Amino acid sequence: EAGVTQFPSHSVIEKGQTVTLRCDPISGHDNLYWYRRVMGKEIKFLLHFVKESKQDESGMPNNRFLAERTGGTYSTLKVQPAELEDSGVYFCASSQEQGGYEQYFGPGTRLTVT
Amino acid sequence: AQSVTQLGSHVSVSEGALVLLRCNYSSSVPPYLFWYVQYPNQGLQLLLKYTSAATLVKGINGFEAEFKKSETSFHLTKPSAHMSDAAEYFCAVSGYNQGGKLIFGQGTELSVKP
Hints:
The complex is a heterodimer. Chain A is 0% helix and 50% strand. By secondary structure, chain A is mainly β. In chain A, strand 9 and strand 10 form a beta hairpin. Chain B contains no helices and eleven strands. In chain B, strands 2, 4, 5, 9, 10 and 11 form a six-stranded mixed β-sheet that branches. Chain B has a five-stranded antiparallel β-sheet with strand order 1-3-8-7-6, with no helix packed on it.
């Protein structure tokens, strides 16, 4: 069974540009989460999809971030326009159920905004 | 709001020595508790979890953790460290009816000396 995949693994963009991160969850996992780790800080929750619907987007930093999940399958996270403080590692995770169930994490996308 | 504190951003032990990584959480209700490990260039991997069953939880690779409600702690231990245990370890909490989103501690980098 394939794990959670993320693309690209690294992205270096200039301030003001747009970047789109992609996450492919484990097949059959209705729950998809995005997290971010800024250098030197803890991993922070961004948002949670159940199938194609956003259940919780309380962690999204501002309206420069837009997440979608097409048909309840893969998800994209777009940053437009990117700012320096958006640099960090963006993780995607998926799970079959909520609550005390294991979340399976992808390897992350390292975003550097210069 | 829930929070997780990991004492010590870096811990160094000798091979064969006891590993003890500390985690304290703040919650008025016993939550779900997790320990994840991240090896270099990989995603987070679940080591073990507590979901209100046995307070002593055994995980993969010889790790275990004990849930102590009175101390609001969930410390991770391993009797004998191996070189392959060198990685970053994350303690995380998820509350009931919170959709499964994880609140992470700051992470602890474990080094193992030969």
